[in-house]
Please model this.
Amino acid sequence: MGMCESIEREARNSPFTRDRAGRILAKTIYRELRLNGFDHKQIVSIAGNLISQVTEDIRPVRSADEIDDVTEASLQAAAR
Model:
């Protein structure tokens, strides 16, 4: 059984074990990155990219009209 399967099985049990599984996964990923030559700056960049992905996923989807309104307002502000 692989590491991910073990963590997934644990994560189904309760919120406490999900938190624990998340910490274990984070520590494992960190160790693997370090063993594969990533330095601290690169690991922080990876963490930032992961946070960006989560932020993008939870951000409400804007309609095309809303995007056009925001773009138009930005252009008008820049023209002043």
